[in-house]
C-alpha cells in the first residue's frame, strides 16, 4: 500500500479525480482512501452526495487555497488546519493531500457524525464539540480555519461565540474561510409567500416569508437576521436555522483581529457568499 506523501505533488484537479474514483473504490492507485457514508447521510449534511458533493467542495477548496496564497499565507505540509463543522469529513479529504495528518483537525456538534468519520477512516483529529462550548485547541494554534455553510445557520449569539473562539485560536496572519447568506437569500424567502411548493425545505422557509420581508430594512442597516428553522437532531432552532449576515456585520464585529481579504457574492460561482478573513 502506498503512502499519501506520494500524492502531494498532484495538481488539485488530479486529486479531485482520485477522490471521485474513491467513491466507488476504497483503494485508488494503491492508496487506501477513507470510505463514504451512505448517500442519504452525505445529502443530509451537504445537500448532495458523491461526485456532486465533491465537485461543490472542490470549488471552495480551490478558492480557499488560491486566496490564502494571494495574501502570503500558503498552505504547507506542516500547517494546522481546522474544518469547523466537518460533517462527514468532505473537506478533510481534500486537505489530506496538502497537510500532514497530525495537522488536520475537524469538529462537529453532532457526536454521531464524528463517530462515523472515525469509522470511515477520515484523516485527522476529529472531535465532538458542544454548541456553546470551547474549541479544544490552544491559543494561536491554528493557521487555517474553514467554516463552509456553518455561519449561514447560526443565530447572532452563537455566531459571536464561535467568532470569539476563532479570534482566540487563529495565529497572527492566519486565514479563516467561511460562507454567509447574502441579501438575496432573504429576498428569496420573502418571495416564497403564496407560492405552491414541492420542496419541504422551501415549505419550511415559506412560513417565514412575512418575517423575511419585514427584516429587509434591518439587514440593510447591518443587522444579522436569523430565521429559526431548526435542523433536526443536535440542531434545534435556538442554535441552528438560516442566518442572513451582511458583510458590514462581519467587518465591524470580527475586527480588529480580522480583516476581509476576499468577498464573492455571485451565485454563478457559489450559492452562498464567500469570505476570506485574515488575522492581523
Gap between N and C termini, in Å? 43 Å
Uncertain stretches: none
Instruction: Kindly provide the name of the CATH class.
Output: Alpha Beta
> What does the oligomeric state look like here?
single chain
Helix/strand-derived category reads: alpha/beta
Counting DSSP E segments of at least 2 residues, the number of strands comes to 11
CATH topology: Rossmann fold
Estimated helix fraction: 25-40%
Integer average pLDDT: 97
Work out the radius of gyration.
Answer: 19 Å
- Write down the secondary-structure element order: HEEHHEHEHEEHEHHHHEEHEE
What global shape is seen?
A: globular
- Strands in their spatial order, largest beta sheet: 5-4-3-6-7-11-10
Question: Can you walk me through this structure?
Answer:
This protein has helices at residues 12-21, 39-46, 50-70, 90-95, 111-120, 156-169, 183-191, 200-206, 209-214, 216-220, 247-253; strands at residues 27-28, 31-32, 81-84, 104-108, 125-128, 142-147, 170-180, 225-227, 242-244, 258-264, 273-279. By secondary structure, the protein is α/β, with parallel strands linked by helices. The chain has a single domain, classed as Vaccinia Virus protein VP39 (Rossmann fold, 3-Layer(aba) Sandwich), CATH 3.40.50. Helix 1 (12-21) runs antiparallel to helix 3 (50-70). The N and C termini lie far apart (43 Å).
Amino acid at each position: 500500500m502506498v503512502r499519501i506523501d506520494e500524492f502531494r505533488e498532484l495538481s488539485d484537479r488530479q486529486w479531485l479525480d482520485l477522490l471521485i474514483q474513491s467513491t466507488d473504490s476504497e483503494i485508488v492507485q494503491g492508496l487506501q482512501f477513507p470510505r463514504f457514508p451512505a448517500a442519504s447521510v452525505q445529502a443530509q449534511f451537504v445537500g448532495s452526495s458523491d461526485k456532486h458533493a465533491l465537485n461543490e467542495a472542490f470549488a471552495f477548496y480551490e478558492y480557499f487555497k488560491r486566496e490564502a496564497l494571494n495574501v502570503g499565507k500558503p498552505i504547507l505540509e506542516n500547517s494546522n488546519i481546522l474544518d469547523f463543522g466537518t460533517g462527514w469529513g468532505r473537506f478533510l479529504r481534500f486537505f489530506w493531500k496538502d497537510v500532514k495528518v497530525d495537522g488536520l483537525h475537524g469538529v462537529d456538534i453532532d457526536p454521531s457524525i464524528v463517530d462515523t468519520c472515525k469509522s470511515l477512516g477520515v484523516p485527522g483529529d476529529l472531535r465532538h464539540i458542544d454548541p456553546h462550548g470551547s474549541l479544544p485547541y490552544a491559543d494561536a494554534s491554528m493557521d487555517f480555519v474553514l467554516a463552509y455553510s456553518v455561519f449561514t445557520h447560526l443565530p447572532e449569539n452563537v455566531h459571536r461565540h464561535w467568532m470569539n473562539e476563532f479570534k482566540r485560536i487563529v495565529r497572527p496572519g492566519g486565514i479563516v474561510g467561511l460562507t454567509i447568506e447574502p441579501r438575496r437569500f432573504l429576498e428569496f424567502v420573502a418571495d416564497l409567500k403564496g407560492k405552491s411548493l414541492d420542496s419541504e425545505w422551501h415549505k419550511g422557509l415559506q412560513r417565514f416569508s412575512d418575517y423575511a420581508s419585514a427584516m429587509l430594512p434591518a439587514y440593510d442597516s447591518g443587522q444579522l437576521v436569523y430565521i429559526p428553522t431548526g435542523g433536526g437532531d443536535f440542531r434545534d432552532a435556538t442554535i441552528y436555522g438560516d442566518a442572513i449576515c451582511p458583510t458590514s456585520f462581519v467587518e465591524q464585529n470580527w475586527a480588529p483581529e480580522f480583516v476581509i481579504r476576499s468577498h464573492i457574492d455571485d451565485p454563478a460561482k457559489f450559492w452562498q457568499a464567500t469570505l476570506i478573513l485574515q488575522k492581523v
